[in-house]
Amino acid sequence: MIDRRTLLAAGSAAALAPALPALAQGAAVTPPFHHVMVGGLRATVVNDGAATRPDATQGFVMNAQPAEVAAALQAGGTPGPALVNPYNVTVIRTPRGLVLLDAGTGATPTMMVNMRNAGLDPAEVVLVAHTHFHGDHINGLLAADGSPAFPNAQIAVPEVEWTFWNDAGEESRANEMRRPGFANARRRFAPYAGRITRFAPGAQVAPGITAIASPGHSPGHVSYLVADGDRQLMVIGDAITTPALFMANPDWYPVFDMDPTQAVATRKRLLDQLATDRIAVVGYHFPMPATGMVERAGKGYRLVPLA
Questions:
Q1: Spatial separation of the C-alpha atoms in residues 227 and 39, rounded to whole Å
Q2: Residue 50 is inside which H or E element, if any?
């Protein structure tokens, strides 16, 4: 159960995230896309730009000292204190068409350009399945004129996430930082009315793509397990971000985690599963190519690029 006092104290990325992409305009991330085969399914990680946090040692990791954060960044290959925060959308080519896992920021044409350069036509998107409703994951549902950016797509959303962000009581109790996220969610999904399906964790949202409960960062956050034969890929959304910080130190949590206790428990469970079962992973906020294998390292974990 989400502790409402924790939600109010921690605030939410839902309000903060819509402002972040403005910092990303003009940001170039290399490579702009990356293909990964999962059996007979092809997953393509498409970059949607990046924002830069000028000093990640201040106010980002809520339960670590600035010197600890600086040391972790340096150990992870980032001199700091600035931290580049990429946005990466995973696209799965299925026999029925393209499936997007999250919709991007919508701040610039970056994702659409990178999709086309990767051989992916946005008009072929038949489904957009969401990990959660923070702005940098749903704002890309709309084009600049407010029309659907993916006119041929159905929408799949986690039931708990949908319920939370459409709850007038939760909206009334939200602090000023979090409250705009409720109206933002209503606006982004409105043009898709009649095409939205709600699901519970464990549901198969498309052939080979199963939703996995991973709450804490937001109330109904899910990850997606993409599988074909004996090959697997976990698309984890924001359940784990910035590997140098939150893989290396699973007990740490960022300011955007809405329920820190639950988020840390989820993170530890996922990291253990990924490392034990040797499941490849994609992170929405990992440095491109944003894919790799998770290995145990000391008291934490590390991301090892795919061979």
A1: 7
A2: strand 41-53
